[in-house]
Amino acid sequence: MAVITTATGLSTGARLLSIPYMIATAARAFPYSLPSLCYLRKGNYPAQRWSILPVRKLVIRAARTESKGVSLGFRAPNFELTEPLTGKVWKLDDFEAHPALLVMFICNHCPFVIHLKKDIVKLSNFYMKKGLAVVAISSNSVVTHPQDGPEFMAEEAKLFKYPFPYLYDESQEAARDFGAVCTPEFFLFKKDGRRPFELVYHGQFDDSRPSSNVPVTGRDLSLAIDCVLSGQPVSSTQKPSIGCSIKWNPGGYQTSSIKPVSFTTCFMLIVMFEADLLA
């Protein structure tokens, strides 16, 4: 749970802070909240200094959502999505030669994804050597969460050395076709000859959650992958994945038409500081 603050106005009597300093301070204090409120780019803030009135606290809670609504036996839908890191367009057909396909809906900012990120990479590296195909998709709206946009996806994939393609679902059609509702969400499909990919696992990575003090093991997903690759049936008893809800485009906006706002505009609306940071 993050605590941010909102400004009530400007005052000449309040302490002055430079905009670059405030950005850096807020980013350290609220790494998940800052980019979702302003699309900050280098040079997007004014050189002048601002003054701030005393602030009031606003409590923000992440919405926990469970994966649901997709039945085992579901056929993998076709998709055609771009990988921001390389510019390559990937399709479902690109994975036809593999005995199994893991489709993950993730994003950059979600604390549930961040909690598992390194272990998702580790698990993927291990099973991709055994023949598993893996693909990750981000469907979050960049209108509400610009830090999940393609530019930052490419940086994320490079920073964490994703061994799988990390695809951008700008239209959000892939999320709707798969029935995805949260991040992270895992869909494991098996391939049987020429038959289409068939869903055999739609559940959690493991029992670990942020701040739960339960170690990350990947046990649930690993057991399902082991069964698929060894030709064994996957248990139908599956715990749903839990994470942040997918962020749908508000009002049906097309993301390609949305441009970053200047820091001046955003700053006049929300200033993300704790009162003690101004002391």
Keywords:
single chain; 279 residues; alpha+beta; 3-stranded antiparallel sheet; 7 helices; 14 strands; globular; disordered N terminus
Structure description:
- This protein has seven helices and 14 strands.
- 35% of the residues are buried.
- The protein has 279 residues and is α+β, with helices and mostly antiparallel strands.
- The longest helix has 18 residues, at 111-128.
- Strand 12 and strand 13 form a beta hairpin.
- The protein has helices at residues 19-29, 34-37, 111-128, 150-159, 173-178, 219-229, 263-269; strands at 2-6, 16-18, 49-51, 56-60, 64-66, 80-82, 89-91, 100-105, 132-138, 166-168, 182-183, 185-190, 198-201, 242-245.
- Residues 1-61 and 253-279 have low confidence and may be disordered.
- The strands form five sheets. A five-stranded mixed beta sheet has the order 10-9-8-12-13. A three-stranded antiparallel beta sheet has the order 5-14-11, covered by helices on one side. It has a two-stranded antiparallel ribbon with strand order 1-4.
- It is globular and about 45 Å long.
- It is an enzyme of class 1 (oxidoreductase).
- It comes from Datura stramonium (Jimsonweed).
- It holds the Pfam family Redoxin.
